[in-house]
Structure formats: structure tokens, C-alpha cells
């Protein structure tokens, strides 16, 4: 503890609590990084500016970004005891065991600075209490006796092995630090077809084939799109449209990783991460090995609403994105993610309405340019909520053609069976307002779903 600065790296670029930081807005106005490699998110987390953190996350700030000293925003928020921000970062999948240049994790700092509640929250969310820094010190070594005792108990309850995890061969070195999912994949939009290995065909339909495969050590799916008459015009449109789907900045959006056109007779090909549970539709209706109870239903609803709130901040919005349970994927940690690989391209059956059961009545009748997409997406979300709580396929006994006709022209609507929580019923009804202008915005319903989650 004597080496307050040294061993914890506090006199180095970052977590520098003592010195004045200048105005936050000045920091934020600099595009990108300052000379310590702090991102705006680093600053907002250090200064405890919760609403700025929200804004930055909404705008797509990367959660696990590192400064020159390899501190993540979570290191700063933890060190300065900003508990609410720590919670937000964790919710957005911040890595609780990320080590900086000294091998210190956010928990090392929370312990050292006596941020007891933050330390507890970190441990609850998977932070290891026995991980060694470069100097062989664990977070517990840094904590005062009472906190040390409390964390040790908590860690034991959570099933942590309390044997010291040595600095050199720590498990996180190879994975987190190289940031495989985002950092490296981010750079390459155009992929080399020869580097794709296709393992098994999963599905084939009118829009194309879907294969499971590997690419650069990642488990992926490869979508080979079926397009009649692949003209240079279409090829050019493809190259313009797919980069917009490479959205890596929100935990509830599943990016399209890259694309290419396969020889010899070119087919457009897109790739995305392989999701072990498949789509929400698969999970809800095609009997995998877990049941979506009400808690999980609300969690999925919240994930989807967060993802949609983010997509609705984009200007212009992504065209031809249809929200339904087949275009929401479930990740290995049970996070719902909106699939960018399911966004349609301009050359895919223009004008055809996909999966009418989730489409708002006004959207079934009007031309795309006359529809308020943000309002009609909210209707689709209401259908998803209905699907989540009933675990049934909407209008299951009708064909797509019949659904389209009856919803648009005959006032067909999903019926809400008894036994559904009144809170969810109410939310569903608000989101399914017949008047598109009266439906709420996604950022308005996120807090409602968050509250339901606490119940
Ligand atoms: P559309 O062509 O209109 O999107 P679809 O969703 O039925 O129709 P695909 O998108 O090809 O067709 O998906 C087929 C199946 O492949 C889905 O049922 C889903 O289970 C699975 N699938 C799709 N994307 C992924 C993914 N990223 N990871 C794992 N499985 C996936
Ligand atoms: Mn699909």
C-alpha cells in the first residue's frame, strides 16, 4: 500500500484522481483521443458524468476501449467510486477482469481506494478476487480487512477458486487484450473468399443459403444470397449497402462482419457471428432446452428495446430492417441481439413485405416512403412482446398472405390471453396503439422494462 502511485499505476497516465482535468466539454469536443489516449468515455467515467456516459454509449462508444496505460472506462469509474456508471458499463458487457499495463483490474482499484460497494458489484459480476497484478498482488491484498473479508465470502459463494491466479499465465491475456470480436474484425469489411471455410449447410430458402463456418478463428455463419441477374449495378449497390451493417458499437446489435462476392458466377456473400441458440424464434417456438419464463422474457424485451433505441438514433436509419423474432439472435450469454445480417438489400425482392405478422397495419398498406419507420418498428416490438409472454407464434393458423390481408383490412389483432402480467399487458397495448403517432419511442420504454426487471 505504500507504493500508492507506483504499483497501482496511479501516477502514470491514468487513474489520476488528484490533478484537475479541465473542462469535460473541452475534453469531449476533441474528436477521438487526447494525449493520454483517453476516449470521451474514459473522461465521462472518471468524472462521474452519468448522462454523458449514457449519451456516449447510445452513440456507439466502445465499452472496453483502452487508453495508453491499458485502462478501460471501467477502471476509471471503479477507481473513482462511480457506482451507477460501473453498473451501466457492466450491463453493456464491460470486461470486469480487464488488466491494465500494471496487471491491475478494476477490482484492484476499487479495493485500493476503498470503494466498497463498487468492489462488491464487480465481484457479483464476475471480477476475480485472486487475480495477480505484475507485482503479485491480488485485489484482496489491496483491500482493508473488513472489505477483504466481505469480498472473500462473496467470491466463495459465487464459486470462485481463491487460489492466486498468477500474472503471466492469466486466462484473460490471450482473449480480452487482443479484443478479438471487435477490434480486429472491425478493420476488414471486404473479406477474402478463400479464407472462409464452410462446414455445414444449415438452411436454404428463397433468399439464399446459410452455412455454418469458420473465418480467422471465429465461428461464423455465411449467407450466400440468391439474386437473379447479378448485374454490375447490383454489385455496386451491394458494396455500398453492406458496410452500413457493420455496427460494432452496441451490445444488442449483432453486426454483419464482412462481405464478398464469390467467384466464379458471383454471389453476394455476407458473414456474421454464429449464435449457438439461433434466433429468438428458434428459442421460443422450436423447443431448445430452456424455457423462456417471465423474467427471461422481460430481459429479452429490454435487450431488444435497447438495441432498437440505438438503431433509431442513426440518421438516416438503416433501410429495409424488419424487426421480428427471426431477425433477433440469442448469443451464448443469453443476450438478445438485433441481426444486421437479416437486413435486406435493395436488390432482394424489392417491395415484398417480409413476415407480415410483425408488420404494423399502416405499414402493410402504405408505400415505404410514407411510413414512419420508428412508429411501425414499435408495433413490431409489441408483437414481439406478445410472442415473448405467450410463447406462441402470432397468427399461427394463418398463411402470410392471409395475415397481411386480415391485419391490413379486417382489423385482425393478436388477442391477449388471461394470466399475463398487467404491467406487460399495459406496455403491449401502449406500443400497439392504432395511431402510429401515439406509440412511444424506444428510449421511453427502456426504463419501463428496466423497472419490470427489478420486480
Ligand atoms: P430470411 O432469409 O428472410 O432471413 P430465415 O431467417 O428463415 O429467412 P436465414 O436467415 O437464412 O433464413 O436463417 C435460417 C436459420 O439459420 C434460422 O432459423 C436460424 O436458426 C439460423 N441462423 C440464422 N442466423 C444465424 C446465426 N447468426 N447464428 C446461428 N444460427 C443462425
Ligand atoms: Mn433470417
UniProtKB/TrEMBL annotation:
Residue ranges crossing the lipid bilayer per the database entry: none
Region called Disordered, residue ranges: 1-28
Limits of the Protein kinase domain: 196-449
Localization per record: Cell membrane; Cell projection, Lamellipodium; Cytoplasm, Cell cortex; Cytoplasm, Myofibril, Sarcomere
ANK repeats: 36-68, 69-101, 102-134
GO biological process: anatomical structure morphogenesis; cell-matrix adhesion; integrin-mediated signaling pathway; substrate adhesion-dependent cell spreading
Family classification: Belongs to the protein kinase superfamily. TKL Ser/Thr protein kinase family.
Protein name per UniProt: Scaffold protein ILK
Source organism of the structure: Champsocephalus esox
